Amino acid sequence: MELTDEHLDTLAGLAIEVPSWAYGNSGTRFKVFATPGVPRDPFEKIDDAACVHALTGLAPSVALHIPWDQVDDVDALTRHAAERGVRIGTINSNTFQDDIYKLGSLCHPDAGVRKAAVEHHLACIDVMTATGSSDLKIWLADGTNYPGQDDLRARQDRLTEGLATIYAALAPHQRLVLEYKFFEPAFYHTDVPDWGTSLTHCLALGERARVCLDTGHHAPGTNIEFIVMQLLRLGRLGSFDFNSRFYADDDLIVGAADPFQLFRILAEVVRGGGLEADSGVVFMLDQCHNIEGKIPGQIRSVLNVVEMLARVLCLDTAALAEAQRRGDVLGANQILMDAFYTDVRPRLAQWRTERGLPADPMAAFLASGYQERIERERVGGVQAGWGA
Ligand code: LRH
Ligand code: MN
Ligand code: MN
C-alpha cells in the first residue's frame, strides 16, 4: 500500500524525545574522542536538541539525566527550552556514578546507601515538578558480579521498598518508568534484568508505573516485538529507549544495525495502539555518538524512526488479517514484507517540504553552518554524563 495523506497526518503527530547526553562527548572504556563544538552545559545541549527539532519537526522534547544536567536554576533551563521551541521531557535518575553505589543503590545491603538513593530520586521529582516533566525514568546499575555476593531475594525486597517510597512521592500526573537490562555494569546478575521483573514491580506500585524498553538491553536473538506487544496489551509500556546494537549495549543509531527489527517493533506499536495520544508511550532515543557527528547522528535517528513508521503504516492490515485467518503462511509474510520494502523516502521528503521543513534535514544541517558556529563559539565541551 502507498503512503496516504491520512498516514502522513498520523506521522505529523509523532514526537521523538532526544537525550541530552547524545550531544556530549562519549566513548568506550578505551577512549573518548573529543568532538569540537560539543555543549559546555545543559543549556547548549538544549540548543542542539532544538536544532534537531527545527530541521525534522519531530523531536519536540529533550530528556535530561540528573546530575549530568543539574543546573542551579531549573526554571531558567525550562524557559530556555521553551524559547528554543522544545520542552524538557523525561527525567532520568542516576545512581551509578557515585562511589557509594559500588554495591548497588536501591538494592544495596546498607540502609544508609538505600536512603541516599531514594533521596536522589526525590530530588529528581523536584526537578520534574520544576520542568513540568511527567516521567521519572529509573534505570538501576544494581546487581552483583559473583554468585553468593549478596542475597538475590533480599535485594528484590529492598527494591520493592525503595520504589514504593519514590512512587508515593510522585504528583498525580507524574509517572515512574522502570528500565530493565540483563547485564552491565553488573555481570553475574542485575536486579531488574528483564521486562517481567520490571512489570512485576510496576504492577505492585500502581497504575502510573510503566516499563521502559531499551532496545539494546536484551540478549541476542530476543524477540523484542513480542515484548512490545505484551506490554501494550497490558497497558504497561511506558517508553522506549531506542538504539541499535550489534553485540552489547552499543547505543548506536536506531535502525542502523537491524532495520527490519525496528520495523517489526514499530509494527507492534501500531498494532497495539502505541501511537495513539492517550497510549502514554514515549518514543525516546538513548544513544551515544562516539565517532560520528552528534547532531547529524540525532537527525539520522529521528529520520530512521519516522521512515520505518511510514513503512509500517503502508502495511495492508486488512489483507494481512485475511491471510492470517486463512492460515496463508507465506501470503501473510509477503504482505508484511511488502510494507517493509516500500520506499517511502521520496514521499516523506515531499511531505517535509509541504510542512515548511527541509526535504533533506541531513543536507540542510550540513549547509546551515550550525556546526561551524558551535565549533567556533564553544570551547571546552563536556563528555556525555561521565565527567560532566
Ligand atoms: C543504561 C542506560 C540507561 C541510562 C543510559 C545512559 O545502559 O540505557 O537508560 O540512563 O543508559
Ligand atoms: Mn536506556
Ligand atoms: Mn543502555
Q: Which key phrases capture this entry?
A:
388 residues, alpha/beta, TIM Barrel, 8-stranded parallel beta barrel, two-stranded antiparallel ribbon, 14 helices, binds 6-deoxy-beta-L-fructofuranose, binds manganese (II) ion
Shape: globular
Rounded Rg: 21 Å
Bound molecules: 6-deoxy-beta-L-fructofuranose, manganese (II) ion
Helix and strand pattern = HEHEHEHEEHEEHEHEHEHHHHHH
The description of the largest β-sheet is:
8 strands, parallel, barrel
Residue runs with pLDDT of under 50 for 5 or more positions: none
Number of strands: 10
Mean pLDDT figure: 97
Number of helices: 14
Structural class estimated from helices and strands: alpha/beta
Give helix % range: 40-55%
CATH superfamily: Divalent-metal-dependent TIM barrel enzymes
Strand content: 5-15%
CATH class: Alpha Beta
Report the CATH topology name.
Answer: TIM Barrel
Could you explain how this protein is built, in words?
- With 388 residues, the protein is an alpha/beta fold.
- It has one domain (5-377): TIM Barrel (Alpha-Beta Barrel).
- The protein is built from 14 helices and 10 strands.
- The chain has helices spanning 5-12, 42-56, 74-83, 111-131, 152-168, 195-205, 224-233, 259-271, 294-313, 317-326, 329-340, 345-354, 361-368, 370-377, and strands at 16-19, 61-65, 87-92, 135-139, 143-144, 175-179, 189-190, 209-214, 237-242, 282-285.
- The chain has an 8-stranded parallel barrel, surrounded by 6 helices.
- Helix 8 links the parallel strand 9 and strand 10.
- It starts with a helix and ends in an 11-residue tail after the last helix.
- Bound molecules: 6-deoxy-beta-L-fructofuranose and manganese (II) ion (2 copies).
- One manganese (II) ion is lined by residues 139, 179, 214, 241, 286.
- InterPro entries: L-rhamnose_isomerase, Rhamnose_iso-rel, Xyl_isomerase-like_sf, Xyl_isomerase-like_TIM-brl.
- One of its GO terms (biological process) is L-lyxose metabolic process.
- It comes from Propioniciclava flava.
